[in-house]
Specification:
By secondary structure, the protein is mostly helical. Among the domains are: about 100-165, no CATH class; about 170-240, no CATH class; about 250-305, no CATH class; about 325-400, no CATH class. The longest helix is centred in the N-terminal third of the chain and has 20 residues, at about 100-120. It is elongated and about 115 Å long. The strands form 3 sheets. A two-stranded antiparallel ribbon has the order 1-2. The chain has a two-stranded antiparallel sheet with strand order 3-4. The protein contains 15 helices and 6 strands.
Length: about 400
């Protein structure tokens, strides 16, 4: 069955009336739907039954889907009835189609202006609603940006929003802001190897640089990511040291070392305790010299250009002779053990077992059994005077 509402609505009409006459200023605009405009069908449809008011709402929804050309023009439909009954039915006096898309636009512009006056910008979160809690300003601005990117926004509207300060590409604007902060940080530190906690111009530049160094951190668009990387490299070619094979921490200390030397400091004077921007460059330098073999070739080359060299290994001490390697005869540890051994033998009349612990006159305890076993194991390294003292105490293996 053909819908009585098909072909009723014009694309830009703001009022269709079933009353005596149209407004003198009313202009009908042809549309692209199947039938010609038929305002009389509306009256016949509403006079059929008051229940058709609800059916009408369903027709409006269906009609808007069938005819996208007027989907922006028909946003709200109101049917006004005379409360008096005529022939036992409500009498439909007029039907009004209100162009709420235009109303929403004006309300959005007003809400955006108020937000701008209050906050000083239009970087509105998506979930934000206006002060009355009725207008979703964040979602509305997102919709406008989507419409602009699709090329469906008129020049008049785009100019009006740009006059309010709307930024169409928020991602590009955010990158430009952070790039300015990165440039300011580099002017102060001469490197973009910022620690994660670094801030400048009220921007957490350290965390931002950490984020964009991650895979995909410069965006999903390869061309845009390449342009952004080039912009950062123009500030500091080594802004992303991970691609070079070392950490941000290493790059920061290396940059500070180069700055100290460029300012006239001598390499020999950069010792632990010498700092720059709170970093102990002297201690870091000593570590690089000590762990030279752990550095990659590029790191070694860069440090070498600054005059840094590997710390030479100390010569191994000449091997001590067997007679000199053990504890001396008069050493305190040996004498204490010998005293405990003699005390045990004098009391017990035999050699102590491994678990024997002897209490000395000064109140300390001595693990005499373990001490004697250890002396036996390294008897070839004991001094002759030590062996003679043990032999006098009755130790048989000390005599051989």
């Amino acid at each position: 069955m053909r819908s009585p509402l098909v072909g009723v609505f014009p694309t830009t009409d703001t009022r269709v009336s079933t009353g005596p006459a149209h407004s003198p200023t009313h202009k009908e605009t042809p549309h692209t739907c199947r039938n010609e405009e038929n305002p009389q069908a509306i009256g016949r449809f509403f006079r059929a039954s008051h229940r058709n008011v609800w059916i009408f709402s369903l027709y409006v929804t269906r009609y808007r889907k069938r005819c996208p050309a007027i989907s922006l023009a028909i946003r709200e439909a109101l049917c006004h009835f005379d409360e008096s009954l005529r022939d036992g039915e409500p009498r439909c006096r007029s039907y009004t189609v209100i162009n709420t898309e235009r109303q929403d636009w004006r309300r959005g512009v007003e809400a955006a202006w108020q937000y701008r006056q209050r906050e000083g910008h239009l970087d509105v979160p998506y979930e934000h609603v206006d002060a009355d809690g009725l207008f979703p300003l964040g979602r509305w601005l997102s919709d406008q940006r989507r419409t602009f990117r699709a090329g469906a926004m008129t020049g008049e509207r785009s100019a009006e929003l740009e006059g309010l300060g709307v930024v169409w590409d928020t991602a590009a604007a955010g990158f430009a802001t952070n790039l300015g902060a990165a440039r300011a940080y580099y002017q102060l530190h001469r490197t973009l190897a910022a620690p994660r906690s670094a801030t400048i111009l009220d921007i957490a530049i350290g965390q931002y640089l950490t984020n964009i160094r991650r895979p995909g951190g410069l965006g999903k668009d390869p061309e845009r990511a390449q342009r952004r990387a080039a912009a950062l490299a123009a500030i500091d070619p080594d802004w992303n040291p991970g691609t070079l094979g070392w950490t941000v921490d290493w790059q920061r200390h290396y940059a500070y070392l180069a700055q100290l030397l460029a300012e006239g400091a001598r390499l020999t004077a950069i010792v632990p305790g010498v700092t720059r921007h709170g970093e102990d460059i002297g201690r870091w330098l000593a570590t690089q010299r000590r762990d030279w073999d752990r550095l990659n070739e590029e790191q070694q080359l860069r440090l070498g250009e600054l005059g840094v060299k590997k710390t030479p290994r100390a010569r191994k001490a000449a091997a001590k002779t067997a007679t000199a390697s053990g504890p001396r005869a008069g050493s305190e540890a040996f004498q204490k053990g010998l005293q405990a051994l003699q005390q045990y033998i004098a009391r017990e009349g035999g050699m102590p077992g491994r678990a024997v612990v002897e209490r000395l006159p000064d109140g300390t305890e001595h693990r005499t059994g373990i001490w004697l076993a250890n002396q036996k194991q390294r008897r070839h390294r004991l001094h002759p005077a030590q062996l003679a003292a043990l032999a006098r105490g009755g130790i048989d293996w000390a005599r051989t």
